[in-house]
Amino acid sequence: MQGGRVTDYGTLQRRAAAIGAALASSGFKVHDRVGIFLDGGADAIAAFFGVTAAGGIAVVINESLRPRQVEHILEASGATTLITSEDLLARQPRQLETRTQLLLAPMLEDLLPVTYAPVPRSGMDPAQIVFTSGSTGLPKGVTVTHANLLAAAETVIGYLGITATDRVASVLPFSFVYGMSQVLCAAGSGAALVVARPPLASQLVTELRAQQVSVLAAVPPLWQQLLNVASFRDEPLQSLRLVTNAGGHLPVPVVRALRRAQPQARLFLMYGLTEVLRSTFLPPEEVDRRPDSIGRAIPRAEVLVLRDDLTPCEPGEVGELVHRGPTVTLGYWNDPEETARVFRPHPLRPAGTPDTERVVFSGDLVRQDADGWLYFVGRSQRMIKTLGYRVSPDEIGTVLYASGEVAECIITSEPDDARGERIVAFVVLAGGGSLDRLRAYVGVELPRHMQPARYEVRDALPRLPSGKHDVAALRGEQRQGAWT
Predict the structure, then answer these.
(1) Which fold has domain 1-121?
(2) pLDDT digits (tens, 9 = 90+) for 251-262
(3) Which residues in 310-331 are b (16+ Cβ under 10 Å) and which e?
(4) CATH topology agreement for domains 1-121 and 384-480
């Protein structure tokens, strides 16, 4: 359901079949990659199921991205077709430059009704490539199988207890693993999916109440926005029985405020990463006792906390979170080197067992208490978590340099109660460079969540003896309050 428009499962199936048939008639081949660049709604969901039913690999592209990122994703995935709409293309600041064949979603109405037999797939066949910001400066694709998606959906439906009578809110982009999870959990349980994307938190609260939503998943910045709305903070939504957080750490004061605001709703604090979809969760019964914990491993999975020498950490000792189980994905698309770095053989497998299983080294630092509960400590990789997005500083820097206005730049972040982290750009302007022109360029080339909230113009940036930028020195200035 979206904006008062209801799509039943039968119509959704026919729309998906129409897309499968349209792809088949266009020269599409099994395992071809298909970009899906649509506003969240029934067409986007039908496109996902239609592509996978046709034996293709879906590449869902966040509708907030700008042409630069869309073009990179299409090129990096080798997409042969892009399913999009004239309306979304018209809203872009410039025309997409791509050789990918376009399939416009409105044409689907002319194709209904249609019958289409899905192409048989095995569990290990790729179903989706999820693009996430990477340490190399451009988004990298994670290859997800049909079995991964099924295992994740069945697991989450199981521990959340979602049923066909639920009304599941969809407030996050489908390009997020977390956002797509709402779609798959609704479809897997037969629940109603209520797509709600109003621009203001107050409008979202009104819609959640009107639609009698019973399951709501959000990221920390959105929870904080909702708690600033009196009709959410002071008036419980009686239909709301399940709320979940992922996509970033929810500060303990916010956890407690959310419990006070919606005491009737069971709160699940969850942790995941794109490479394994979902990793841990804290049951509602433990939230008041340990609100800073990310819980334990999801059913059918195992989480290890390891030292650098790959030996297990003692309780209370900080180590890297390593995940194993049926949601471990295939690796990074067309990137064997990065895949080998993150997806490694099980380091603690019993002697003599085959070296075939791969586990994911998350790059996240955690500690485990004596009772087995996990606590997030920090990220070992230099990523920024802002507005629920994981953002690469290098990707932002690449765009700043491309503007021609910048001679040097360093991208860092600082704490922000509303965003999680605020992006900060330290720049040395090029000869004749203009900060105003730089801001305008970035406004065209980067989506809002990737745009620096603060620019600091310097005559020079600190360097290490090696000649590399000294990012730590700038972070030290920020911590000491050297500038405001």
Answers:
(1) Rossmann fold (3.40.50)
(2) 788 899 999 999
(3) eeebeeeeebbbbbbbbbbbbb
(4) no
Cis peptide before 113 (omega within 30 of 0): yes
Taking only the tens place, the pLDDT of each residue in 78-110 is 999 999 999 999 999 999 999 999 998 865 555
Q: Is 218 exposed, middle or buried (0-12, 13-18, 19+ CB in 10 A)?
A: buried
The partner residues of 44 in beta bridges, in order of sequence, read: none
Beta-strand pair 343-345/358-368: antiparallel
The tokens for 402 are 């491309």
Query: Mean pLDDT over residues 123-145, rounded?
Result: 84
What residues form DSSP beta bridges with 168?
193, 215
Name the token pair of 90.
């018209």
Question: Does the pLDDT at position 114 exceed 90?
Answer: no
Distance between CA atoms of 400 and 405, rounded to whole angstroms? 7
Question: CB-based burial of residue 432 (10 Å sphere; 0-12 exposed, 13-18 middle, 19+ buried)?
Answer: exposed
Contacts of 244 (CB under 8 A, 6+ apart): 160, 215, 216, 217, 218, 267, 268, 269, 270
For 133-251, strand residue ranges (E) read 140-145, 167-170, 192-195, 215-218, 242-245
Tell me what percent of the chain is helix, strand and coil, each rounded to the nearest 5: 30, 25, 40
Assign 443 to helix, strand or coil.
Answer: helix
Domains of the chain, by residue range, sit at: 1-121, 384-480
How far is the CA of 402 from the CAs of 68, 95, 227, 446, in angstroms?
Answer: 11, 18, 39, 12
> Which residue bears the tokens 């087995």?
372
CATH of the domain spanning 384-480: 3.30.300.30
Neighbours of 107 (CB within 10 A): 12
